[in-house]
Amino acid sequence: MSVTGPTGTVFNVQRASFHDGPGVRTTVFLKGCPLSCPWCHNPEGIAAAPEVMVNAARCLECGACAEACPREGGPLPAGARLGSDGCLACRACVGACPTGSREVAGRAWSVDDVLDTVLRDRLAYDTSGGGVTFSGGEPLAQAPFLLACLAACRSAGLHVAVDTCGFAPREVVMAVAARADLLLWDVKLLDAARHQAVVGVPLAPILANLAAASATGVPIWLRVPVIPGLNDDDENLRATARLAAATAGVRRVNLLPYHRTGSGKVGRLARTWAMDAAVAPTPERMCELAELFGQSGVETSIGG
User: Could you report the per-residue pLDDT of 254-272, keeping only the tens digit for each?
Assistant: First the structure.
């Protein structure tokens, strides 16, 4: 890994992605997020520090991880932060596991690491109109690293998108908008009190940042998760459709039906999934919502 320039913490890279912007894309997931959405499908991306994940169903309880670990007391439990409580962050326990049941979410990357990885699929980008998407977590939470990655990718001639919740300092939002080809902007709830209660941060800065980013002319796709019992009521979704129509930079709305992808990851972090009672919206309901948003005059699709 190059040591020049800023480094960041990456917890996943997904190649051949079709859901994070136009064409075939490589999505780079940066760790750390200021929100606490209970339906988050990347719960390992919320904390900024690398974390231990353990798949109990694959663990043989063979003791190989304990034997390899130099820490007094053995390897850290699931959900612990790497490097805490005497951990040397050597990852020996991960390497020793014969079934791969232990892993660490998060590793330091340089800008060169990112560029070397994403350039492997340049042919796919060129033939499909795709490119690179930075997601998370919340990529704006690692602003210096993100901005350096955006500059490097743009210099290499790659189309770059950023998937953001929009909760960040204004100067960061504007710097990202100036360097990105596309913003994928998540909109959760448009009632301020409900937004604060459900995701843990105020709504007003997100809407103000959205307006400011839109004024720069950067294309924006609004991404709206449809979460049963939390934001799927007609009042909230009509308000979101009005926001899409009133924001000049918005080119498209993606309606994202709730799914349980995050539930297994939460278990590997020794946490509890808060959405057990939730049921995914029916295809018929999603089509109704797509029609509602389509009436706003903004192109609308179901899924990414």
Answer: 999 999 999 999 999 999 9
Q: How many domains does the chain have?
A: 2
136 SS3 class: strand
Q: Are 96 and 76 in contact (CB under 8 A)?
A: no
What is the model's pLDDT at position 4? 61
Task: Report the relative pairing of strands 107-110 and 7-17 from DSSP bridges.
Answer: antiparallel
Same domain, residue pair 64 and 132: no
Task: Evaluate whether 54 touches 270 at the Cβ level (below 8 Å).
Answer: yes
Are 127 and 159 a contacting pair, CB within 8 Å?
no
pLDDT bucket at 229, cuts 50 / 70 / 90:
very high
- Assess whether 60 and 155 both reside in one domain: no
pTM of the model: 0.95
- On whether the CB atoms of residues 141 and 128 are closer than 8 A, the answer is no
* CB contact set of 196 (below 8 Å; sequence gap of 6+): 202, 203
Is residue 87 located within the same domain as residue 187?
no
If you average pLDDT over residues 175-200, what whole number do you get?
98
What CATH number does residue 64 fall under?
Answer: 3.30.70
**For the chain, what percentages of helix, strand and coil (3-state, to nearest 5) are there?**
40, 20, 40
Q: Could you tell me where the DSSP H helices lie in 133-203?
A: 143-155, 170-179, 192-199
User: Per residue in 5-52, pLDDT tens?
Assistant: 799 999 999 999 999 999 999 999 999 999 999 999 999 999 999 999
Range of the domain at 152: 7-47+107-302
- 2, part of any domain: no
